[in-house]
Each structure stands twice: as C-alpha cells, then as structure tokens.
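Input/output pair, single chain:
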Amino acid sequence: MKKHKHEAELVKEALRVGAIYLEKRGAGKFESSDSASNKITAIYRLLVQDGLIQPLAKGQDNEMQMKHKLALWMERQLPAEHPLRQK
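Output:
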C-alpha cells in the first residue's frame, strides 16, 4: 500500500462527506461523541455495502487500511484541479 501525499487531509474530508452520505442514505447519524475510528468503520462498511468501494481482503480490514480506502475514494470524488488530488 502506497501512502498518499495528502492522505490525512483526504481522510478528514472523507469523514465529513461520508457523514453527510450516511445521513442522506438514512443509515444513521454521527454524534459528536462518536470516535473517529467508529466513523471510519461505519462509512467504510456503508460504501462497501453500496458498492462504491471494493472491500478489503479478509484479515486486512483494519483501521489503517480502511483510512487508505476512504482517502482513495475521496480523491476520486474531487475535481481534477483540486489541491488534494495527487499529481
């Protein structure tokens, strides 16, 4: 797994956009007391369930790998000229 140049920022944006998607999808709503780890897991699982990202291989579904998947997903959602897109 190659770490992305702006991975931390992309994960942060993925959590923001993912929370909106989760709520609009009717799958729940995050509380301010929910941990980032719980948010990452919930958004990752919803995106996999909806077929928007490929699931990780069995045994590879840890938080670090989920963050990477969310960062890649977020990068694909951004316009080509966005500063967080890798050049």
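The mean pLDDT is 85. The chain has three helices and no strands.
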